[in-house]
Amino acid sequence: MTIIVSKQWTGLGGEVGKTNRHLFGWMHAAGTALCTLALIAGAGSASGQASPKGSATKTKPNVVIILFDDAALMDLGIYGGEAKTPNIDAIARRGTRFNRYSTSPLCSPSRAMLLTGLTNHQAGVATIKEVLPKEHVGKPGYGLHLEPNAATLPERLRLAGYQTYMSGKWHLGDGPGQLPGSRGFDRSFALDASGADNWDDKPYMPFYNEAPWFEDDKPTSYPSGQFSSTVIVNKMLDYLVARPKDNKPFLAYVSLQAVHIPVQAPRDYTQKYAGRFDGGWDQLRQDRFERAKALGLVSKDAEAPAMHTSMRAWDSLSADEKKMQAKAMEVYAGMIEATDVEIGRLVAHLDKTGELENTIFVITSDNGPEPSNPGGERGFSLWMKTHGFTRELANLGERGSHNWIGPEWASALATPSYLFKFYTSSGGLHVPLLMAGPGIAADKAVNAAAFVQDITPTVIDLVGGAPTIPDAKPISGRSLAPVLTGQAQAVYGPNDAVGVEVSGNAAITKGDYTLVKYNPPYGDNQWRLFHVVNDPGQTTDLSTQLPEVRADLERAYAAYAKANGVLELPEGYKVQRQAAFNSTMRQLEFYGWHLAGLVLVLILVLFALVRGALALFSRKKKAA
Fold it and tell me: What is the rounded CA–CA span in Å between residue 91 and residue 484?
């Protein structure tokens, strides 16, 4: 493997505010030569290592994976976003960013794929509990936790001598052997839920009656009053500071809650974006699409994606509605910037300890932006009140306030793609991916196809390999290292088909074409064919013009579905109805005894009232 040694980290201190310019200058001048010699002697390991501050030379780089939750392709500054993300941008400019990277449309399947290099069905996480129909419960691939033979990246790297840590959202199982400590992490602070409040130790939706946090696989509590990105980074810093001083490299998996519902942020950050979104989602769509063209994310002649016909026009809202909607997006941008600041603290720590230049960074999102509008759900307002939430303009997104952005903003955020999370449209799958560090070309954007299951084999390649694990399923993703090092333009050829399926939402990509279908209410379960490069907004169905291409992709999807054990959805399945039913069942599970007791009390009271009425009637009758 060709090793690229560049000025990747020179000058980073000026962007994170706490690094030492002189140290980086020395690192580059003296460390570059040492890195190159060490790498040549290291049997082709794709890692570079300076020896800052007198530390012993290591041959393997550290790895930091930072996973956003529900962030769109253009949410980060380096991709043209409105939020200020100088720390992420600094990392990106010292590495390679992908413009054609795809994930899955839902959080748990994506996380399973990222951490194993398998498809979600191979890993055992076909979908999420919230929308699982009873017909699929317990079926192969639908256990909704990582299967024992789905080896994880931390399990593999630990065998390669790595210390392994995770902090943040897990959502990959909470039973025996399913939490992070049983899946390769030495230390972990993990939320096993699809989300939670960002300020307090409480759930965010009726499917949960608590926020199930675990530390080292044991139940723990969230430090109430602190912002989630701060808490998650603090925990990771605690683990890094306390790790054994044995000069082992580390894997740090930082799994953020930003920008998942509830969308929340400290007031100081939200205020920075006051008025920024007053033009509404129509304006945001237009602005983002023009920036996408200017940045080369789409071709100059690409068409802007349409808004779904069910969505409201901004001008149809009342003045008060516009204020609330604009404020929701101000909080959204503030949440991203506040999280970037926390990432800067992690970078500054690595600089201080002399480990920054020998650290590989992977920054991405699990899926596209979240369209849910909980305020439109029956009973949600009552649930909010009983759990201490308000939704008021003055303190929107702050402690005690529930917030979301809804489908119109999510659709605009997904620009230049179509639709959003839950759907295998481009907006559900097309998210940012940037990688930086030793062996990775700097200041480069690539249009090569890349998929979430490629991250594990890429990291393994970049750190110089890891021992095989007996009986583990073979990795199905491909290493992107040849693209990152400049050895190849792509690792997928025109005849390579890659599929994904989550709860009936499906896509198969082959070369420059993708065949997709997705569920109501924004889809109709019909296959459509699109050109990935020329039409990222999926505006023109090419099925009629290219019937042979469509037929070929249909055959490719059938092969994928068979190989992965994809199950057909029950007749009449609707994801919203299933989610409501599953939440109701969970509430009955949580509070069934309370309801039974209340019903019993009501029956006893009614019985007593009836007896009393009968006794009174009898006395009156005798008196007459």
Answer: 14
